[in-house]
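We now fix the convention by which a protein and its fold are recorded. The integers have meaning only within a learned vocabulary of local backbone shapes. A complete example follows; check for yourself that the lines match position by position.
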Amino acid sequence: MTLRRTAALVVRSTWRQRRRAWPAASGIAIGVAAMVGMTAAGRGAEREVLARIRSMGSDLVVVTAGQVKLVAGRPRQLGNVTTLRAEDAAAVARGCPSVLRAAPAQSRRLSVKWGDTSTTTTVVGTTPDLLAIRNLAVADGRFFEDEEDRGALRVAVLGPTVVRNLFEDRAPLGETVRVDRVPFTVVGVLAPKGLDTAGNDQDDQIVVPVRTALRRLFNIDYVNNVFVQAASGAAGRALAQLREVLRERHRLRPGREDDFTAGVQADVLAAEADAASSFTLLLGAVSTVALLVGGVGVLAVMLIAVRERVREVGLRRALGATRRDIRNLFAGEALVVGAVGGAAGLALGSAAALLVAAAGALPVSLSPVAGGVAAVVSLAIALGFGTIPARRAAGLDPVESLRSA
């Protein structure tokens, strides 16, 4: 029997058995939809994590006072260390050839009031270099300047969340806000940044000159962080150089532990990317189980079809069909069931992912490769599970098949 004739016969036979074939195709469709949807969710989460980290600066080195340990998956500073100073940032920028910029930073949650409206936000004291180091942008107005920092002037740049909480639809530029009862003039508004890798709102902050923050708000002479921008591809060298500079400035003898923790953002990027990739692979593996369940459905349906079509098999063999023709017929029907189920699953999974993305519930990213893999796997599973009943049908004795009717 020619391939063309076999294909036409398979399509007609599957159509006649459509009431029985649809449940098996539905099982395959659910498995494929799960694979497409879960993979899209995993890839979306992966891309969102990478975008958040890149927004912080890929050549970023973060220096934290004291030792930092991961607690519940988040970095936590152990103890209160006061040896890291704002002057350390300037020394790192001067003494490290691989460092382009360095900015000190000290933050604290404080109350902010404008008129009769008040809120609580994170107040960050830093220098203008942080703008370039952390990839920040000013949406309205301007950022404060070095002269304003050296003069400890009371000027502030607000994040979009603070503007929304305090001013609603009014323009904040030129207004005076009271940060912990200290008046500050609003000179700029930052562009939105969204959430960071820890899930914190980067727009819920007020940035002020570091000297102003240390003297007028926090009443301290130390900082908690120094953010360092390394030259492109030189984050590792910058880390080693700044460690030498800081150890010398802090008078740490050989053998003593650092009183600071420094980490390269690229290392965090790689770790987060690996975790997100593993999550995507896990989701793909889980959805494969659903496909296997659909394959079992194909096996059950095809076994029932063989039992009910024994006379048909006998007639075809009596009319000249070979065992190979019978095997190809039943295997082809299983393949058609897999193809129909796979196509329906691709459409269903893609539509569900797009609806979730449109609703803003989860970040999703459809992958043509994942869709192609799901389609191929659905065909392979349907054909694999359909081979068993196809061989059983091909092995039936034609005489006994005709007698059993």
Notes: The chain has a mean pLDDT of 81.
